[in-house]
Amino acid sequence: MKGLSAFNKLVYALNLVFVILLLIACTVPYLSVKFLPVLSFLSLGVPVLVGVNVLFFIYWALRVKRQSLPSLFVLVLGYFVLGTFVKMNSSNDQFQTDDLKIMSYNVESFNEQGWKERKNIFNAVRDFVQAEQPDIVCFQEVSIGMKKEFLDYPYHYLKKISGGEKVHLGVFSKYPIVAAKTVTFPNSINNGSYVDIAYHKDTLRVFNVHMQSLGITPGTGVLGSHSSKRLYKRVVRAFKKQEEQAEMIRRLIDDSPYKTMLCGDFNNTQFSKAYHLLKGNMQDSFIEAGSGYGRTFEFFNVPLRIDFIMADSAFEVRSHKHYDYRYSDHYPIMASFRLKE
């Protein structure tokens, strides 16, 4: 740091801290949460770490200083290791008639408990889905009272789990559902499911998952009523459960005899261990065909992408769209696919 003013020495020292944090974040998807739980928190802050390093790089580059190199190095490394969370390509959200369209939407129980001031959410969500006309709809957090008549779709899977406080899932399809199963996550209110769908001359297996919540949803009062130590332990437990649940779903995907798709609320970002396990070699529809930031959830006004649609290599990803349709704490997403020849 020879030749730098005292102020710039301080700036550079702070710069190196953020370089190291982003460098550590690059390891998170490849390390078990059990190894060093505190590292998992970095997966939630990668966009911030990237943004700060970009600012540091610009600061030093404008001064033509070699101090710009550490941030440049970790930004390039992060791009290749973690991937991008902003897609600069032109919008590809037009859906063709012949493509298979699948929607994923956490509907927050349709405001069944009256947490929001909005009324008639049940009807509003139904009208939205009917207008968009996806071929397959995967809902998370459906209300216990949801019935097959909710959508004018000929096929559905709405398994009611008796006892406990399980959060329910729902799948509606325009194509025949020939088999279906609920995947129960132990010691969790969350769960997953899959449906086997007869699509033209093929059978597709579509997984619908709702991964362990971190339990710190804004507006629930949790943050204000718990000590920092208790909150830390709570979130670490959730990270560990997410990893265990992701391993369960990954084994089922690997054992699938059919072409496979996966969608749902992962309750974590693309920089997490859970996402890394779930994705495997599958294609993330946003990465392949999305545009912009792709946020599906806001945590204290910080946009995050925690809802995903994926497909294995048998599919061509044709388009991806995220909606500004706020009748839940999540935003819906839809993607379209075409089977490769």
Helix count equals: 8
Number of structurally distinct domains: 2
Q: Averaging pLDDT over every residue, what do you get?
A: 89
Helix content: 25-40%
Low-confidence stretches: none
Tell me about the largest β-sheet: 6 strands, mixed
CATH superfamily of the largest domain: Endonuclease/exonuclease/phosphatase
| Helix vs. strand class | alpha+beta
What is CATH's topology name of the largest domain? Deoxyribonuclease I, Chain A
N-to-C series of helices and strands: HHHEHEEEEEEHHEHEHEEEEE
Shape: globular
Domain Endonuclease/exonuclease/phosphatase: 103-330
Cofactor: Mg(2+); Mn(2+)
Protein name: Endonuclease/exonuclease/phosphatase family protein
InterPro entries: Endo/exonu/phosph_ase_sf, Endo/exonuclease/phosphatase, TDP2-like
Fold topology:
Layout: H1 6-25, H2 46-62, H3 69-82, E1 100-106, H4 121-132, E2 136-142, E3 155-157, E4 168-173, E5 177-184, E6 191-199, E7 202-210, H5 222-225, H6 228-254, E8 259-265, H7 273-279, E9 283-284, H8 285-289, E10 297-299, E11 302-304, E12 307-311, E13 315-322, E14 333-339
Parallel strand pairs: 1-2, 7-8
Antiparallel strand pairs: 1-14, 2-4, 3-4, 5-6, 6-7, 8-12, 9-12, 10-11, 13-14
Helix pairs in contact: 1-2, 1-3, 2-3, 6-7
Highlighted features:
341 residues; alpha+beta; Deoxyribonuclease I, Chain A; 2 domains; six-stranded mixed beta sheet; 8 helices; 31% helix; globular; Endo/exonuclease/phosphatase
